[in-house]
């Protein structure tokens, strides 16, 4: 039993609203957003330079024999780090990067 025909599917006003809502949903799904078509991405100059450096690093030659030698010495527990030489190289790289 419906009250004032509110729940009745025979009510033309309610049926019309339901059809309009369905059509609006279909249109929203079918047509892409205008804003999405206008989106774009741009990289800063430093990001572009970093990209180039990364590509160069991947293309750099690798001494596979030396890598295998170091890997084996690490696995065998024979690899030793010279702390003074490491600290010196880190300081050199930092001074090149930061100009200190």
Given the helix and strand composition, which structural class is it?
Answer: mainly alpha
Nearest-integer average pLDDT: 81
Helix content: 55-70%
Overall shape:
elongated
Beta-strand level of the residues, as a percent range?
Answer: under 5%
Rg over C-alpha atoms, rounded to the nearest angstrom: 34 Å
Q: How large is the count of helical segments?
A: 5
User: Main sheet?
Assistant: none
Order of helices and strands: HHHHH
Number of strands: 0
Give start-end ranges of low-pLDDT stretches. Answer: none
N- to C-terminal distance: 86 Å
Protein name: Negative regulator of flagellin synthesis
Pfam families: FlgM
Domain Anti-sigma-28 factor FlgM C-terminal: 39-91
Biased composition (Low complexity): 1-11
Describe this entry's structure for a reader.
This protein has 100 residues and is mostly helical. The chain has a domain of 54 residues. The protein contains five helices and no strands. The longest helix has 19 residues. The protein is elongated, with a radius of gyration of 34 Å. Keywords: Bacterial flagellum biogenesis, Cell projection, Cilium, Flagellum, Repressor, Transcription, Transcription regulation. Pfam families: FlgM. It comes from Opacimonas viscosa. One of its GO terms (biological process) is bacterial-type flagellum organization.
């Amino acid at each position: 039993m419906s009250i004032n025909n509110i729940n009745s599917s025979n009510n033309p006003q309610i049926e019309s609203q339901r059809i309009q809502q369905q059509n609006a949903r279909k249109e929203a799904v079918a047509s892409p957003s205008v804003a999405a078509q206008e989106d774009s991405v741009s990289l800063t100059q430093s990001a572009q330079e970093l990209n180039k450096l990364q590509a160069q690093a991947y293309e750099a030659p690798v001494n596979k024999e030396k890598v295998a030698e170091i890997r084996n010495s690490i696995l065998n527990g024979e690899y030793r780090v010279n702390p003074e030489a490491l600290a010196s190289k880190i300081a050199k790289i930092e001074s090149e990067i930061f100009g200190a």
